[in-house]
Amino acid sequence: MASKPDTAVRYESARLADYTEESEVERGSVDLPFALLSMLLLTVGVIMVLSASFARAYYDPSGTTGGNATYYFVRQALFAMAGVGVMFLCSRFPMGFYQRISRLVMLVSVAMLALVLVPGIGEKANNARRWINLGFTTFQPSEIAKIAVIMYFSALICRSKNGLRSIKSLIPFGFWLGIIVVLLVLEPHMSAIIIIAVIGMVMLFLGGLPLYWFIGGGTAAAAVLGIGYAMFGYVRDRFSAWLNPFADASDAGYQIVQSLYSIGSGGLLGLGLGNSRQKFLYLPEEHNDFIFSVVCEELGFIGAALILALFAMLIIRGYWLSMHARDRYSSLVGAGITTHLAMQVLLNVAVCTNSIPCTGISLPLFSYGGTALLLQMAELGIILSLSRDIPEKR
Which of 361, 354, 374 is nearest to 80 (CA)? Predict the structure, then answer.
């Protein structure tokens, strides 16, 4: 019987072990389909920011933009170009590097979530303190907390030699997740709590946590939502607006009503790129959380469906790469990042269509936000990094 090539043997040996040292398997090139899909979605996203934002940038009553209609577009384009560099830079570092710095990333994210609560450091808007002002832009620490949970939980799972079978093995996960959730409650930032909690649960599921734990986790999550509903008036208002947005279309339901008008106006083929009417100061956050509504209005059902199809292909490719990753750590990180991407796309579309209560969830690679875009590109770069360790078929 013919023996396997040496490269394949080394690959299978490395795949059976947790990632503790750089493997002897020679690294290849990045996965071209994943890279091209990422670049295509980024390009379309930047174009849509220009189309969705120029009216608000020109008529901005706050004077932030100085009447420059391309204000948001230029900033997003610059961050997009920097993001491409970040993506390919992150693809150069081996996955062992990310495993070694995962604890540091978690500590930094927790420290920044604590700093954002300090008056004078954290910037307050709409009765919430969620941003740190960097001068040239603002930064939301909850964004780095998402990737920190993925990276560090993956490292903890790989270190757990006996699996996630006992309460003792779950203490580190509960400790870090609890700290993050408490800090986010103090901001408050309900959407980030939901996303990070789900990411944490997904990582534990991938790590082999028995299913009965998730029944208890689901009960606890329902209790947290109930507490949030009881404690925070804005949460109750959003639930009421979700159930019947037209009952208070000029106040609590205004945002979702305008979103539904925007989506309905697009029809099958849309009004044409740049021809949205709702973006003329009718639809709030038209270049940010509700940019998908402008996509539907301008590109119609067909255009929006094509964009969602591109996201679906990117997500499927991400899972495929994770399944074929060289080692357990790479597989866990890849699946976690892909799940994060999929979850934000689904939740953003659900908010825009009033399928779930309105909350601040951005559309990856589309919504305006420089630091968030850089972190999203870094996540895609990490998936490209693990793709370089998958041996090519001869």
Answer: 374
Q: What's the pLDDT at 393?
A: 56
- Residue 143 half-sphere exposure, CB side, CA atoms within 13 Å? 22
CB 91 within 8 A of CB 388: yes
Alpha-helix residue ranges (DSSP H) falling in the chain: 6-16, 32-59, 71-90, 95-115, 141-159, 167-186, 190-206, 211-231, 233-243, 254-266, 291-323, 328-352, 370-387
DSSP assignments along 125-182, one per residue: ETTEEEEEE-SSSEE-HHHHHHHHHHHHHHHHHHH-TT-S-SHHHHHHHHHHHHHHHH
What's the CA gap between 83 and 380, in Å, rounded?
A: 10
CB 76 within 8 A of CB 373: yes
The whole-model pTM stands at: 0.88
pLDDT, tens only, 345-357: 999 999 999 998 8
pLDDT tens track for 188-208 = 888 888 899 889 999 999 888
Owner of token pair 């700093």: 115
